[in-house]
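Q: I have 207 residues here and want to know how they pack in 3D. Can you give me a structure?
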Amino acid sequence: MDAVEFPLSGRVRAARRWLVVTSTGGAVLVAVAVASVVADAVGWMPVPRAVQAVLVLVALFVLPVVWVGVHAVWALCGRAELFAAAGDHPRRRPTDRQLVGHLRDEHPLTPLWWTVAVLGGLGTLCLGFALPFALADGALLAGALLGAGLVVSLAALGLAVPGIRRAERQGAADRKRRAELWSLPSAVERRLTTPLLGTGDGAHLGA
């Protein structure tokens, strides 16, 4: 079965551009967060602690979810269009690049839900540990903020666990559909088993 570049719509190309922009912006944000911490620590430039905290929290908790979410949108759009276009290309299959980008064994929402689950768990542990100390010190505003963050973290965990299960079921159905449509070389099949997150053996970060 010969590989051919399946045509994808402008929506998929636009999602790819957003992924590139998000990746670039994320790298800049991480560099700024690290630079602010280092500059303040060595005395090069005083940086307000509030600014440092916001930069670090955004880089650690917001940026991963945004990047994986944008990647999921791009992969989902391309996956749907590749499946829909299969009938127009008999005895042809998508290129290796399109397969790896859009038709991995895992469903595109699986890494997103795992990211939310891991960050929600970390947030629950950290905020749950800090909240009693804030209340004991009489810091009501800090306690209220920590409590709100704890509620958000618990809600994220509550959404992520069933989300992972739904994504795994959909991923299994998509793998079956892909196998029915295209016969792939074993080398390509191995590349498709590599998850977006994790160690490359099918395990996800935090699994």
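Q: Anything worth noting?
A: The longest helix spans residues 140-181. The chain is about 75% helix and 0% strand.
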